[in-house]
């Protein structure tokens, strides 16, 4: 292979510092050598040595740094008309230690018999995997009389069509439910209706909760010394727990996160939506009378949470005068919620990015989970909810 490094000439003429016509020639020789491979270098220097005559091997060595024995070897190969010199490779074949499968022809069959009882595979493809680790297989082969290192075992497993893979998230929960696609179609229809009418559409979800305090976080920053944090992430050492509730305005492509410091409850979720409406929604949609909420099937905005429905009616409908339509994504389909691909990976202690704002007003109320107000079923059933909308709850102002 070409080195790409141009060597400086160390001959007496170039080292004297006196102007000489051979200075440029020696520089060009080293420049050419930097672009030639191993065998081309010794052949070229052999030709130069023959041109210069007696004592040229030593001079060429001083100019290029290539050993005199290498130059003589190139001259011998040229004298033999490059016989037995491969044209498609640099060195002669057969160099290095022979592979273990050549020294021990039965090693592949021995390894295959060893891993056969613990080999699993996909019946619909050619993928296979082994339960034991490479180190365990190496020890078991050594006990059978074959001393192989773990990397060699891995190379032999690849020859047996096994491969090293990680888990791949491809299986979705309840992906074969008959009403799944129907619910997605209904959500698309509602989004289209609200978009055409210019009514607000928000996508909501609780983001990853974080402990407040000196705790380890992923990422790095430019500083003179690293920031010292706690060795363990014990909740008792924290100043509280940050609960970020994200609200994504679909039509305006703007996300907002309201940070609580108590618990992720339906009351907190509805209060965050109400505050978004007062801070941004009312100004962005001054003539709006309806609101479409896209939410997951679980969490604080669960489709089964009675307090979530009661707070929607009491706060958004009765107090703010909005007609609220809630569409829940099917179970296991939260990744289709627009907020997950638009306002994702939020770190509470980082600065705001463009198009994303963080709200944490002082003196905000607490939402203790243990003291959540129980809502009776008959109270929820008595709410003015349009039950003709089978796949979304439409809450109206009383």
Describe the structure.
By secondary structure, this protein is α/β, with parallel strands linked by helices. The chain has three domains: about 10-80, no CATH class; about 100-160, no CATH class; about 180-395, 2-Layer Sandwich (Nucleotidyltransferase, domain 5), CATH 3.30.420. It is built from 14 helices and eleven strands. The chain has helices at about 10-15, 20-35, 40-50, 55-65, 70-80, 100-105, 105-115, 135-145, 150-160, 180-195, 265-285, 305-320, 340, 375-380, and strands at about 120, 130, 200-205, 210, 240-250, 255-260, 290-295, 325-330, 355-360, 385, 395. The strands form two sheets. Strands 3, 4, 5, 6, 7, 8, 9, 10 and 11 form a nine-stranded mixed β-sheet that branches. Strands 1-2 form a two-stranded antiparallel sheet. Helix 11 (about 265-285) runs parallel beside helix 12. It is elongated.
What key phrases describe this protein's structure?
single chain, 3 domains, elongated, 398 residues, two-stranded antiparallel ribbon
* Number of strand segments: 11
Radius of gyration: 37 Å
Percentage of residues in DSSP E strands: 5-15%
CATH class label of the largest domain? Alpha Beta
**Helix/strand/pairing category:** alpha/beta
Indicate how many domains the architecture comprises.
3
Query: What separation lies between the terminal Cα atoms?
Result: 83 Å
The secondary-structure element order is: HHHHHHHEEHHHEEEEHEHEHEHEE
Molecular shape = elongated
CATH domain fold name of the largest domain:
Nucleotidyltransferase, domain 5
Low-pLDDT stretches are: 345-363
Named CATH architecture of the largest domain: 2-Layer Sandwich
């Amino acid at each position: 292979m070409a080195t790409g490094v141009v060597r400086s000439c160390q001959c007496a003429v170039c080292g004297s510092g006196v102007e000489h016509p051979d200075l440029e020639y020696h520089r060009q020789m080293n420049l050419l050598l930097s672009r030639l491979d191993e065998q081309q270098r010794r052949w070229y220097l052999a030709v130069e040595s023959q041109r210069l005559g007696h004592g040229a091997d030593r001079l060429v060595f001083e100019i290029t740094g290539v050993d005199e024995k290498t130059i003589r070897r190139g001259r011998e190969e040229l004298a033999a008309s490059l016989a037995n010199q491969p044209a498609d490779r640099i060195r002669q074949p057969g160099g290095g230690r022979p592979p273990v499968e050549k020294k021990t022809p039965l090693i592949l069959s021995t390894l295959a018999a060893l891993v056969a009882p613990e080999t699993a595979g996909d019946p619909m493809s050619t993928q296979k995997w082994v339960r034991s680790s490479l180190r365990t297989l190496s020890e078991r082969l050594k006990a059978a009389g074959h001393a192989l290192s773990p990397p060699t075992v891995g190379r032999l497993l690849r020859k047996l069509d096994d491969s090293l893979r990680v888990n791949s998230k491809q299986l979705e929960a309840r992906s074969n439910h008959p009403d799944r696609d129907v619910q997605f179609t209904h959500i698309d229809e509602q989004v289209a209706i609200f978009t055409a009418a210019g009514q607000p559409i928000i996508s909501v979800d609780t983001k990853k909760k974080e402990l407040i305090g000196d705790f380890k976080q992923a990422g790095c920053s430019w500083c003179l010394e690293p920031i010292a944090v706690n060795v363990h992430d014990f909740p008792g050492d924290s100043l509280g727990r940050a609960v970020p509730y994200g609200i994504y305005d679909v039509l305006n492509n703007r996300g907002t996160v309201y940070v609580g410091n108590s618990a992720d409850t339906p009351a907190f979720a509805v209060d965050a939506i109400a505050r978004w409406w007062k801070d941004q929604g009312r100004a962005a949609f001054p003539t709006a009378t309806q609101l479409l909420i896209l939410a997951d099937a679980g969490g604080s905005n669960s489709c089964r949470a009675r307090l979530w429905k009661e707070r929607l009616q009491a706060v958004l409908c009765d107090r703010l005068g909005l007609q609220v339509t809630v569409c829940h994504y099917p179970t296991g389909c939260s990744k289709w919620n627009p907020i997950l691909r638009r306002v994702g990976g939020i770190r509470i202690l980082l600065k705001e990015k463009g198009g994303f704002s963080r709200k944490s007003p002082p003196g905000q109320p607490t939402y203790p989970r243990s003291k959540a107000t129980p809502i009776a079923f008959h109270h929820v059933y008595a709410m003015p909810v349009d039950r003709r909308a089978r796949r979304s709850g439409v809450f109206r102002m009383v």
